[in-house]
């Protein structure tokens, strides 16, 4: 919290004329949710509990903290690097305590033991994402997708930045279109497997 902005400011102070690609990632909203994160910043106007479920309540609180930190981070960047084009990509974590939510197949959990798993297409794995630019308009993509699986988020990020696509991202962009934003649950499994085989055969991925 705050360290990412300091790192970017220190880098900007070097005043390098070359384009830079810097990734700053925060995991503060991730589990475990069995303790109150940053209780010292609770405001008088904050609700002390948003949900009766303790873990889900903590999850919601961390979303509040994440938004405040993100807004402060962007304001700090705007003040320290006025006019600098910055691409922001934001995405959420899966819902907490998945096995305790009333989802499909959950009624069989007691009898399934460790082999029980949610369907990969379950809504329990759905979250949000957002791509927007500071001081520039991200390049538009060909079309919108109802759901974008995480494997495609890097491709969308590169496309939004307006960067040229190398051979891997060019193939990923075609797969994104072909699978309608899906990957693990793409109906055309042959297309996904062909892409993965191509990564290995082209030495982009080392096979072990």
Describe this structure in words.
By secondary structure, the protein is mostly helical. It has helices spanning 3-12, 54-80, 109-112, 153-160, 167-178, 189-201, and strands spanning 86-91, 129-134. The longest helix is centred in the first third of the chain and has 27 residues, at 54-80. The model has no long low-confidence stretch (mean pLDDT 80).
Please summarize what this structure is.
The chain has 208 residues and is mainly alpha-helical.
Chart the SSEs and their pairings.
Blueprint: H1 3-12, H2 54-80, E1 86-91, H3 109-112, E2 129-134, H4 153-160, H5 167-178, H6 189-201
Antiparallel strand pairs: 1-2
Helix pairs in contact: 1-2, 5-6
Q: How far is it from the N-terminal to the C-terminal residue, by CA?
A: 38 Å
| Strand/helix succession | HHEHEHHH
Morphology: globular
Give the number of helices: 6
Largest sheet: 2 strands, antiparallel
Helix percentage range: 25-40%
Radius of gyration, in Å, reads: 20 Å
Mean pLDDT: 80
SS content category:
mainly alpha
In what order do the strands lie side by side in the largest sheet?
A: 1-2
Low-confidence stretches: none
């Amino acid at each position: 919290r705050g360290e990412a902005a300091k790192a970017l400011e220190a880098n900007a102070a070097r005043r390098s004329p070359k384009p830079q690609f810097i990734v700053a990632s925060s995991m503060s909203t991730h589990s475990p949710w069995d303790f109150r994160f940053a209780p010292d910043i609770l405001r008088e106007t904050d609700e002390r509990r948003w949900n009766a479920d303790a873990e889900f309540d903590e999850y919601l609180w961390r979303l509040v903290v994440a938004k405040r930190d993100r807004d402060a981070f962007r304001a700090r960047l705007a003040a320290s690097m006025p006019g600098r084009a910055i691409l922001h990509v934001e995405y959420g974590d899966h819902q907490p305590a998945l096995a305790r939510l009333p989802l499909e197949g959950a009624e069989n959990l007691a009898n399934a033991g460790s082999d029980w798993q949610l369907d990969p297409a379950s809504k329990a794995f759905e979250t949000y994402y957002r791509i927007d630019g500071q001081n520039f308009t991200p390049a538009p993509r060909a079309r919108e997708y109802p759901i974008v699986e995480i494997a495609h988020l890097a491709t969308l990020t590169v496309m939004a930045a307006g960067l040229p696509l190398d051979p891997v991202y060019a193939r990923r962009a075609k797969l994104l279109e072909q699978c309608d934003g899906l990957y693990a649950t793409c109906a055309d499994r042959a297309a996904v497997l062909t892409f993965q085989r191509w990564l290995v055969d082209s030495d982009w991925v080392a096979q072990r």
